[in-house]
Structure formats: structure tokens, C-alpha cells
From TrEMBL:
It comes from Symbiodinium pilosum (Dinoflagellate). One of its GO terms (cellular component) is cytosol. The keyword ATP-binding applies. Residues 1-16 have a biased composition (Acidic residues). GO terms for molecular function: ATP binding; hydrolase activity; RNA helicase activity. Residues 1-141 form the Helicase C-terminal domain. Coiled coil: none annotated. Residues 1-24 are annotated as: Disordered. The keyword Magnesium does not apply. This is DDX51 protein. The gene is DDX51. Keywords: ATP-binding, Helicase, Hydrolase, Nucleotide-binding.
Length: 168
């Protein structure tokens, strides 16, 4: 995270606040300065990082829920949830980082197909949230599993069977 703090970049209006688990987001290389904002950073490091984000020297923050409440960053144009939260209140606090003070903002939430109904039910608790939701399905190539996935799944199944029979 320290190397991201040292990068300089010109100020633009396009800023993205990415909310999710930093490990799940992966911090893959992107064509803009990206930094992790989580409880693993010391409070002083977080303060420096927020200043750098507000001044657009860092364009994208990958955050844990530490940022979901109480931190006001006026220029956030989008929130990306890499994992769908389980509770409506968490979702509202996460997406509340964008569209502050009457400005337009966007939220994108990746929801696994098996979690879609739970997520939909959760959002229906707030009619205001559900009315503005658009569903997009990722192309099948993006959903395909890596080559080792089937083998790992079979190994896990064998381990679970052995464990249930008392062999582990």
C-alpha cells in the first residue's frame, strides 16, 4: 500500500471508490493509480490516502467496510461492490459514498447467480433501492472457472466424504 501512496497523478473528475474486501478485489493492475484502504493501514496512512484520493492523486480505492460509513468524499462517481453485502443497512452505507449532496453517482454490485434472489429480497426491503436496479449478466467467458477448478472441487468433495466417514 505504501508504494501507491508515493505515486503522483494529475487531477481529473473521474474518481471511483471501490468497496469490497481488498483481498477479493485482488488489486490487479489498472490503468490508473489504485490503493488499498483498510484497517490494515495505520490511521495516519489512511488519512494520507484519503487526502491523496480527494486530490485525485489516487483514482481508485479498494476498500473494506471501514469506509462504508462516516467518511465523506464528495467527488466519488461510482461505488463497485465486489461482493454483495448481506444486510440492507451495509449496502445503503456502501453505496452512500457516491451521489453525495444531490449529485449523480453509480453503483455496481457483482452478485453470484446463486445469491441473486437473496440480494433481490434484501433490496426490496427498500423500495427506493429496488426501483432503480438494472440487471446485467456477464458473458459466459467471464464466468468460466479456471482449468484447475474442477479438480479442486473433486478433491474437496473426496475430503468431505472422508471426513464424514471419520477417515480424516
Amino acid at each position: 500500500a505504501s508504494s501507491e501512496l508515493a505515486e503522483e497523478e494529475q487531477k481529473t473528475d473521474d474518481e471511483v471508490l471501490s468497496v469490497g474486501d481488498a483481498k477479493e478485489a485482488g488489486l490487479t493492475p489498472l490503468p490508473c493509480p489504485v490503493a488499498e484502504f483498510s484497517s490494515t493501514l495505520a490511521p495516519k496512512e489512511r488519512a494520507v490516502l484519503l487526502r491523496r484520493f480527494r486530490s485525485a492523486k489516487v483514482k481508485c480505492l479498494v476498500c473494506s467496510d471501514i469506509v462504508a460509513r462516516g467518511i465523506d468524499i464528495p467527488a466519488v462517481s461510482a461505488v463497485i461492490n465486489y461482493t454483495a453485502p448481506s444486510h440492507l443497512q451495509t449496502y445503503i452505507h456502501r453505496v452512500g459514498r457516491t451521489a453525495r449532496a444531490g449529485k449523480v453517482g453509480h453503483t455496481f454490485t457483482f452478485v453470484a447467480s446463486g445469491d441473486h434472489e437473496r440480494f433481490k429480497t434484501m433490496l426490496q426491503q427498500s423500495a427506493d433501492c429496488w426501483e432503480r436496479i438494472s440487471k446485467f449478466t456477464l458473458p459466459s467467458a467471464a464466468r468460466s472457472q479456471p482449468p484447475w477448478w474442477a479438480e479442486a472441487k473433486q478433491l474437496l468433495q473426496r475430503c468431505l466424504e472422508s471426513e464424514s466417514k471419520g477417515r480424516l
